[in-house]
């Protein structure tokens, strides 16, 4: 008697449980539903993502978040920034805690496939380098045999570091740190001889020092680090929105659309590519579930790719990064937006 | 129903309403209902996890443990390099966890017992000082202590290169070099080394085995000598002098090894960026160990104090009346009785210390949480498997500690007949 009751209840519970499973996410609907984009960002890397004195997030990666929010929600301010560490970022994305991860993350095979993430594009072509105090008297990474090196755990840099020292038959002592801020502190205290991370990150870290000229970034770049925004695998429409928002920023620079002249060009541009990009003709927005002016808003949010670069990490800023690989393809760089057609 | 109703014609036939209104069945009914609810919840949780993992395109797969780890670990108790598997990296992490927990438990016990006894001392200054220590350490989160102690080490001590050049820093006593990365202490090498015992890739020096063997032998012999002295005392009323034999047992073998094999100290030397030749004890290990010791020691002190207070005052008064000095009263009368009260909560403190050691990542000490639960999980994307495995390992370690401590507890507890 009790047994049959038990079996029946269990079966009923099982059916209920089956109905209760979380459905496959539709991120666009989630974002518009809550009227807010949740963006996973670096916990603090000057130039890329850091809160300013008033608590407003600014930076190169932040600009991507703002552009997406502007495209989807018509307001670049409707973003909630979730700081993530090297260890928590992919879990935060996979678990749905954030909608998109714009946190200088390297596009690698295993992350794209095994971690079931999708890289929506590349907003910065980077490579791993080393920073040492000038007083150490080291001018090449090849002279670092036996050195103590600070490295963030859970990053590709940790693996590249091991590979580089293996390949050059050198030894080193790792100091594992959890965040860039901790790395900075350890490096400044002299707990490690060298600090290794992406060259852009080194430049940004150095810019925050009291006397940046006392530290040099060694010439060796030991890896390729293509950094870009990441979304969950499986929600292709959301991936498209993030990808093409990024392309819109890059294409805008290519076609000379800036935050200053965008209104003017939207009304009188002769270039059909610009007209399609800004939604004057055609209906590209509808194909990704947005309205016609999505790209226009994204570009207006912080300017085109070149403007964002110049404002946050360019040569005029304390970080002082040259465009290098990140120049437009027409200028000998790798930035190449797919056609808006 | 399996329950047999009382025999006799008066017993009414079973009706469903009796499941609620009849006291004979009611408790059974509610137990079954609660059981069903709990099992449904568990079923739903497991099913939900599996389905969500499927939706993400993930499966549960432990094969990642056998692929190449690719990252380096600063402190290794057994050999490891980045070509080894994630499994070996996890074992390295586990050994680091056990190492710091073991050192922490021992130090915290000594500290806790000393402080707990001193807190009850009649000396006003000592008693107050110990109260301050206990209240400060047990009322501030452990993580802060770990970070503070680590920061003190890295900020105060000099970088290794401060020991070089014109106005170079001198080695402490000419032997020890504290730096902001590690403390370099002298190592020991033998002129005539008998070699090492090779087990797989683990090399154990024969001298260490010999030393530990002699030490164990000394402990056994000491027990035998003391037992014999006790027998002689019981028979004749005079206790033979044994202290010089006991002392010799522990002093002669090390000295003999030292002379026969020509042991000498190797002074750490600054070569390139870092010290070599000695043993470099990482600051992260020392900071973590100190913080765990001081923090848990404060709790143990309170347990010890409570245990001592639990022994009735008459015991110490009787002991004093017999003419025993205060320190013998404590060692022979109070503590043996207090242990009955102290040991069970002490087990919890050991477990806490072991689990708290997982805060190691804050100072970059690569314990199990740092290797398996940190880098491995991150590089392979196997969060669920990694965390499940880590939970299992911590559970197993904790159960083992409490198993061993329970055996000890059953030996010291009051024998009731």
TrEMBL record, chain A:
Signal peptide residue numbers: 1-22
Xref: InterPro entries: Bact_solute-bind_prot3, Solute-binding_3/MltF_N
Matching SMART domains: PBPb
Tagged with keyword Transport: yes
Alphabetically ordered keywords of this record: Signal, Transport
Pfam families according to UniProt: SBP_bac_3
GO terms classed as biological process: amino acid transport
Residues of the Solute-binding protein family 3/N-terminal domain: 36-265
SUPFAM superfamilies (alphabetical): Periplasmic binding protein-like II
Membership in a protein family: Belongs to the bacterial solute-binding protein 3 family.
Protein name: General L-amino acid transport system substrate-binding protein
UniProtKB/TrEMBL annotation, chain B:
Residues that span the membrane, as ranges: 28-46, 89-118, 130-153, 203-222, 243-267, 287-311, 387-408
Membrane topology reported for the UniProt record: Multi-pass membrane protein
GO cellular component: ATP-binding cassette (ABC) transporter complex
Gene Ontology molecular function: transmembrane transporter activity
Keywords: Amino-acid transport, Cell membrane, Membrane, Transmembrane, Transmembrane helix, Transport
Coiled-coil segments: none
Localization per record: Cell inner membrane; Cell membrane
InterPro entries the UniProt entry points to: AA_ABC_transptr_permease_3TM, ArtM/GltK/GlnP/TcyL/YhdX-like, MetI-like, MetI-like_sf
Gene Ontology BP terms: amino acid transport
All copies of domain ABC transmembrane type-1, residue ranges: 94-405
UniProt-listed Gene3D superfamilies: MetI-like
Family (UniProt): Belongs to the binding-protein-dependent transport system permease family. HisMQ subfamily.
Record-linked PANTHER family: AMINO-ACID ABC TRANSPORTER PERMEASE PROTEIN YHDX-RELATED, MEMBRANE COMPONENT OF AMINO ACID ABC TRANSPORTER
Identification of the protein by name: General L-amino acid transport system permease protein
């Amino acid at each position: 008697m009790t047994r049959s009751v038990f079996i029946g209840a269990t079966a009923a519970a099982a059916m209920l449980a089956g109905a209760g499973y979380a459905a496959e996410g539709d991120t666009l609907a989630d974002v518009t539903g809550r009227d807010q984009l949740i963006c996973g960002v670096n916990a603090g890397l000057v130039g890329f993502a850091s809160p300013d004195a008033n608590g407003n997030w600014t930076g190169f990666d932040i600009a991507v978040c703002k552009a997406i929010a502007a495209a989807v929600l018509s307001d670049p301010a409707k973003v909630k920034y979730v700081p993530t560490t090297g260890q928590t970022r992919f879990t935060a994305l996979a678990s749905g805690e954030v909608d998109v991860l714009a946190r200088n993350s390297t596009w690698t095979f295993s992350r794209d496939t095994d971690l079931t993430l999708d890289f929506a594009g590349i907003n910065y072509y980077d490579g791993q380098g080393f920073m040492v105090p000038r007083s150490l008297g080291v001018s090449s990474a090849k002279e670092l045999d036996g050195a103590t090196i600070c490295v963030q755990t859970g990053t590709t840099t940790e693996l590249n570091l091991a590979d580089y020292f293996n390949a050059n038959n050198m030894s080193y002592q790792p100091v594992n740190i959890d965040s860039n801020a901790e790395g900075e502190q350890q490096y400044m205290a002299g707990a490690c001889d060298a600090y290794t991370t992406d060259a852009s990150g080194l430049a940004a870290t150095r810019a925050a020092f009291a006397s940046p000229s006392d530290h040099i970034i060694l010439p060796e770049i030991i890896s390729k680090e293509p950094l870009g925004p990441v979304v969950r695998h499986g929600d292709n429409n959301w991936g498209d929105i993030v990808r093409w928002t990024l392309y819109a920023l890059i294409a805008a620079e290519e076609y000379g659309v800036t935050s200053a002249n965008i209104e003017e060009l939207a009304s009188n541009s002769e270039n059909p590519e610009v007209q399609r990009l800004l939604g004057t003709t055609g209906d590209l927005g509808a194909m990704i579930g947005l309205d016609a002016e999505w790209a226009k808003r994204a570009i207006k949010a912080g300017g085109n790719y070149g403007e964002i670069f110049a404002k946050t990490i360019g040569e005029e800023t304390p970080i002082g990064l040259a465009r290098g690989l990140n120049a437009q393809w027409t200028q000998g760089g790798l930035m190449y937006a797919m056609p808006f057609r | 129903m399996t329950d047999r109703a009382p025999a006799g014609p008066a017993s009414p036939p079973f009706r469903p309403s009796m499941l609620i209104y009849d006291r004979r069945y009611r408790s059974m009914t509610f137990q079954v209902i609660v059981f069903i609810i709990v099992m449904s919840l568990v079923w739903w949780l497991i099913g939900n996890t599996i389905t969500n993992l499927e939706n993400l395109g993930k499966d549960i797969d432990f094969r990642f443990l056998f692929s190449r780890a690719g990252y380096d670990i600063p402190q290794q108790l057994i050999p490891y390099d980045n070509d080894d598997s994630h499994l070996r990296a996890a074992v390295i992490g586990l050994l680091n966890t056990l190492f710091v927990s073991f050192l922490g438990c021992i130090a915290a016990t000594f500290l806790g017992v000393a402080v707990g006894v001193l807190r009850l001392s009649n000396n006003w200054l000592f008693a107050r000082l110990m109260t301050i220590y206990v209240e400060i350490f047990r009322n501030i989160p452990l993580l802060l202590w770990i970070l503070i102690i680590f920061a003190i080490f890295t900020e105060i001590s000099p970088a290794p290169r401060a020991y070089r050049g014109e106005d170079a820093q001198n080695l402490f006593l000419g032997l020890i070099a504290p730096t902001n990365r590690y403390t370099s202490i002298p190592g020991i090498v033998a002129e005539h080394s008998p070699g090492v015992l090779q087990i797989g890739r683990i090399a154990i020096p024969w001298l260490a085995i010999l030393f530990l063997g002699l030490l164990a032998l000394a402990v056994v012999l000491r027990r035998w000598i003391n037992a014999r002295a006790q027998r002689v005392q019981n028979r004749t009323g005079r206790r033979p002098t044994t202290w010089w034999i006991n002392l010799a047992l522990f002093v002669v073998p090390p000295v003999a090894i030292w002379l026969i094999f020509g042991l000498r100290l190797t002074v750490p030397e600054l070569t390139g960026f870092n010290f070599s030749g000695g043993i470099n004890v990482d600051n992260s290990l020392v900071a973590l160990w100190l913080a765990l010791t001081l923090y848990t020691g404060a709790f143990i002190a309170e347990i010890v104090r409570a245990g001592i207070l639990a022994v009735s005052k008459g015991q110490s008064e009787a002991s004093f009346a017999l003419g025993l000095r205060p320190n013998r009263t404590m060692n022979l009368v109070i503590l043996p009785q207090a242990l009955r009260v102290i040991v069970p909560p002490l087990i919890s403190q050991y477990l806490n210390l072991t689990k708290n050691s997982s805060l190691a990542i804050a100072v970059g000490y690569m314990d199990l949480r740092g290797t398996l639960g940190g880098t491995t999980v991150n590089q392979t994307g196997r969060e669920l498997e990694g965390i499940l495995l880590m939970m299992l390992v911590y559970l197993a370690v904790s159960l083992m500690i409490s198993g061993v401590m329970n055996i000890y507890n059953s030996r010291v507890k009051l024998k009731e007949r």
